[in-house]
Amino acid sequence: xxxxxxxxxxxxxxEQERQAKEATFTPVDISVSSADMAVINTISKxxxxxxxxxxxxxxxxxxxxxxxxxxxxxRKMLAKEADEQAKSIAAEIAEEQGLDHLEVSGTNxxxxxxxxxxxxxxxxKKEAELAKQTSTQTTNHEAIEEVEEESSALAAESANEEMSxxxxxxxxxxxxxxxxxxxxxxxxxxxxxx
Length: 194
Description:
Elements: H1 3-23, H2 34-46, H3 51-69, H4 72-97, H5 109-166, H6 178-189
Helix pairs in contact: 4-5
């Protein structure tokens, strides 16, 4: 078989896979604002994408985001219900197409709920670690402030003591100097001229 023939076989296989996948999609008729349609048109034109595929992918991502925002208990209940409905819809499509069975395409919502729970636990753990670090930093900062305040108080006290010593009267004599002064008086009174 030549390379060109194998390429054609590959095209047939891709076409069958695409048709099988598209068979699992359920059409939805929606109306969008002109502004939304304009951005759909420009994005699909820019990336050479089919508008239907673009809208389908955008809607799928938006639904995952909306699902993630649900309360955990409600999300769990709705996930089971959505997965059951997806199986039911796939069975109806398979019957219409004359197929025995059709794989459900798209998001498995029970699995998505588990991913949400895991992400929430990780976020809570990170938040707790951040709070602990912030608390530790605050405690360290407070301790540093206390040490700085004590140091400032001691420096001020020391400065006050130095100022009080400097401000003492220059006419006050030290007690060790008094005996010399008195001894000078005594020597003056014991003078021979007296």
